[in-house]
Amino acid sequence: MKSSVSLSSFPINKLIIGLLLILLVMGILLNPLVTPPGRDSGIFLYIGSLILKGKMPYVAAWENKGPLIFYINALGLLISGGSRWGIWLLEFLFLLGSAAIGYLTAKKYMGKIPALAGTFFWVNAAAHVLEGGNLSEEYSLLFYFLAAWAFLKSIEEPDKKRFGFIVGVSMGFSILLRPNNIGIHLAIFGTYFLLFLFSKERRLLLERFVLAVVGSLTVLLPVIIYFAAKGSLTEMFKVVILFNMQYSDERTLSGVLNGIQNAVGAIGIGYLLPAPIGFVAVLWSLFRQDGLKTVHGKFLLMIIIGFPIEIILSTLSGRNYLHYFILWVPYIGFLSAYAVYLLWGRLSRTYEKPAEYAVVLILFLVSIFGNLNVWKNYGSTISLVFSSPKPVLEYRIPVADYVQAHTQPSDKVLIWGFRPAVYFMSGREAPASFLPYPLIHVDTPLGYQWGEQFLEQFTATPPVIIVDMVNPEADPIPSLNEEIRKTQKRVLRTAVLAPSLDNFFEYVKTHYTLSDEADGYPVYRLKTTSK
Fold first, then answer.
1. For the chain, is the Cβ count within 10 Å smaller at the N or the C terminus?
2. If residue 250 lies in a helix (H) or strand (E), which one and from where to where?
């Protein structure tokens, strides 16, 4: 008997799907050879490098994200010997895991092609709001998709207690990345509650809720104990909890609407349109008779509860940075998959196999030819590996090279203008822990406290050099040059600055002298040191 190999047969089918997911994920990751780290990524890299020196986040360096992002960066730097390629690898694994879990979850009740299409839409939507990557929301995607899968399994197999526990574990890890990153978990709890109200199995649903809470505490408690033992729990609480509550206290309806507008504009209507179509279709299906009695229907209920929650959480601060909208993409993926599922049900009745081959081929071609520059850059990286005995495989900021050449490893340096990647690339440390100084972001006592702390630490261990990297026309930070500061009224009018700023400027004027330029940026040197 002759055996035939088709797309649906075991090895070929899984190999093709896996390769397509790899291409989708690699196509949206920025290559460290040609791209510098963004501002947030730079601070995560710097704190990750400090962790490898035995120092603690929040005490050694201030940043208002959860601790997990710093330890992910520390791990990436550890496995690659200090290279950003280790971070790239972790990003790839996190996103590939997200794509695989999301695909398998959607495939369970919508089929292969809708699941692939949904994955295609969410991955490409994410590409437009990643802002360089290595961000807390990006890593949270894995825990979002894990939570969605575990929720589905907890409904599908109600006797299996581990799935409710996994929901909680995923929430714990997501909280450790950023406390706001719990939209899908709130949606799961909300769905459990609604099912609790209308179900005869109330004890079972209550048990799932308890298991989720226990799972979350299983992750959070060891971290709390560790930071308490290291004497940095109080500072972590002030930075991650109290400050973030104050930071997000400026929410308004107009801020939410502006956030939605920014997200739609950034993602693009082409990748976003299937999601609202799917949203409306889900609502229609749930209102039909017995819509909530199926596993499929309960899962979709969680998705449509979660999307509005996520929109609100991502716009709480009113600042609307594009990476805040990364966590929209799981909902975009599942809702797009449902929209395609409805359409595919009609097409596949007559042209199932030809249509299946055509869709997979189109997704392959778009993934390859839509990212030719990405593949070219990877080709350049591989070429360097084999053409040079000591290749430079990542982008170097010229100021970092200057700092490295003109200071000793033990010297403190200050990069004025908050470009934390320079600290990481130069291997030098800042003189103070509150790196965003003079920006205290919001008008609160905590901000004033950190501003005063900066000045105390700065004057106690004054840096050998200060590089003024402020863009006077765009950055809401006063230049070190007094004449330039007078021209910055427009960009500074909305900035919340530290009250100790005048004292800082006076100290710099007294103890530093303009001595050089680094890549066009003024360099000020401590008067008691020499070049």
1. N
2. none
Residues in the chain: 531
The token pair at 110 is 């919508």
d(CA 63, CA 43): 8
- Per domain, the residue ranges of the chain are 10-29+93-376, 398-526
Task: State the Rg of the chain over Cα.
Answer: 25
Query: Quick check: helix, strand or coil at residue 105?
Result: helix
Task: Name the residue type at position 158.
Answer: P
Q: In this structure, are residues 86 and 80 in contact, taking their beta carbons and an 8 Å threshold?
A: yes
Residue with token string 């929040």: 58
Q: Please name which of 344, 325, 333, 336 lies closest in space to residue 277, comparing C-alpha atoms.
A: 336
The Cα–Cα gap between 493 and 71 comes to: 36
365-380: b (≥16 Cβ within 10 Å) or e? eebeeebeebeebbee
pLDDT tens digit sequence for 5-58:
444 444 678 888 999 999 999 999 999 999 999 999 999 999 999 999 999 999
CA of residue 348 relative to chain centroid, distance: 37
Query: Is 4's pLDDT higher than 60?
Result: no
Structure tokens at 355: 């249509």
**For residues 470-496, average pLDDT:** 93
